[in-house]
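For reproducibility, we list the full input for the nicotinamide-adenine-dinucleotide complex.
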Amino acid sequence: MDWIRLTKSGKDLTGLKGRLIEVTEEELKKHNKKDDCWICIRGFVYNVSPYMEYHPGGEDELMRAAGSDGTELFDQVHRWVNYESMLKECLVGRMAVKPAVLKDYREEEKKVLNVKGGIKYGIQHSTSDVFSPVTSCNLDPGPYKIGTHLHIYIFSCLFLWAYLSLCGMLPKSQVTDTLAKEGPNYPSYDWFQTDSLVTIAIYTKQKDINLDSIIVDRQDDSFRAETIIKDCLYLIHIGLSREVQEDFSVRVIESVGKIEIVLKKKENTSWNFLGHPLENHHSLIPRKDTGLYYRKCQLISKEDVTHDTRLFCLMLPPSTHLQVPIGQHVYLKLSITGTEIVKPYTPVSGSLFSEFKEPVLPNNKYIYFLIKIYPTGLFTPELDRLQIGDFVSMSSPEGTFKISEFQELEDLFLLAAGTGFTPMVKILNYALTDIPTLRKVKLMFFNKTEDDIIWRSQLEKLAFKDKRLDVEFVLSAPTSEWNGKQGHISPALLSEFLKRNLDKSRVLVCICGPVPFTEQGIRLLHDLNFSKNEIHSFTA
Ligand code: FAD
Ligand code: NAD
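The corresponding predicted structure, in tokenized form, follows.
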């Protein structure tokens, strides 16, 4: 808050009296001292000297990027932080473009991966850079771009293909390869229509695709579909040519890696073309290079869980399809006194029981969060002030946890501290319902006091109901009445708790909590001979 106040004070934080300049690499290198420190992030240069004392990670951490391109370092530590908003008063200008780097960029383009402009590539992609002519044919009104005959020909092919593939008669590759931007493995898309529906089909050319892999957002005429393909995102981004209704359906044909998004037309008329391409349309982008996309969600309910932790329920917009995979988090964004503040949160289920009875519906619109309110914190008091019906922006999911870590799992150990319990909620739910090989789940839940324990009675009921689950509470600041386990995470606590059923049993230990807790836990787990593959730690 002190930093935000300083940025609003009208003080000249760059020393350039409001001017923006073009910065050469040579110039950037000169500003490498604490009291004169410039850093480049994604092609924009900031004077971070006034920010030094406010940086949560300390001055030395910032100095690691002094006088250089800090994009990679920034991405490693906190890619999600909204530096554009936090540092807007520190903006010196953008990096000067070197003509020579254009060649590198074109080389990159050949690999068909989009990387946002920055020192490395020197220029920002423009939309026209990323379209192959063939894709344009698919989107644009043919007669303006190509000959009418060709247009009719392609349209007929598409129609024929759509018809035949619906009948299961035509090999998939026949049309998708024609539309592919580059190479047979590049994802592609296609569209077809009936009187009332428009179907956009995405061919991922991967088999491990499911409903979690696709995120669709439609706002007015903008249609955006992100498909997660391994470490990349395949983006379809189109300004639709005609109006559609709010809701749509998404279907995944896992065996062939095909996704179908079915839009409902507002008017039953034939569309001549799907729409016009928008930024980064038909691109495969490494996930680490993509910005986070946010949509506005409405606060539906807020319920006390402990004295300082609440269960928030947010509703996705009707024209969004998004499912947060187990073990992943999202970012919530609020504007606090004019500065956009972003913090990560891990969605949970509405209760430990509800999902055991009723599985999540594919089009579930509600997303639940267990959030602890820190009275002196920056974000959570503001979140807590939201009224039912207010909006908060939510990003697409992120995280490194993969469901494949559960494969043939026999013993699952969960070490959670405070709100570090949040990723364990969906993990518990999944483990007890969907891992046939599972013998035992043990949760050790560390808190300061009994009053801090989230969902204590639900956990106890669940452990009573399902004999495979054991729950142990450990308190670091208990009252004299507490006769359970006490203290911080320690070798004594863990060696007693983490007993494998059999020497060779397939084991996973998940750990989440305050950073020192997690770091210490990982060290202790290694000392107890758990291998790297047997440990998953949750961090940002
Ligand atoms: P902050 O402003 O960060 O302050 C938190 C506390 O630290 C306050 O008591 C504050 O006074 C103190 N503090 C701040 N700065 C300093 C300082 N310089 N020196 C000393 N003390 C200081 N939290 C949840 O509740 N639920 C979740 O599901 C959840 N999921 C997460 C997922 C991930 C991947 C990560 C990394 C974190 C998650 N968190 C979760 C934590 C969450 O992101 C926030 O860190 C938390 O909500 C605090 O935010 P805040 O801005 O309100 O508090
Ligand atoms: P807290 O301060 O109430 O502490 C809970 C317990 O953590 C304590 O009782 C103690 O056993 C342990 N602990 C705390 N500090 C410790 C230390 N220095 N060394 C060893 N053990 C320690 O916890 P909280 O306020 O609920 O904070 C939860 C933390 O979990 C936050 O830092 C949050 O960012 C993190 N979190 C991370 C993720 C994630 O990465 N996916 C998800 C949720 C929460």
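The chain is about 25% helix and 30% strand. The first strand starts at residue 21 and ends at 23. Both points were considered when choosing residues for closer inspection.
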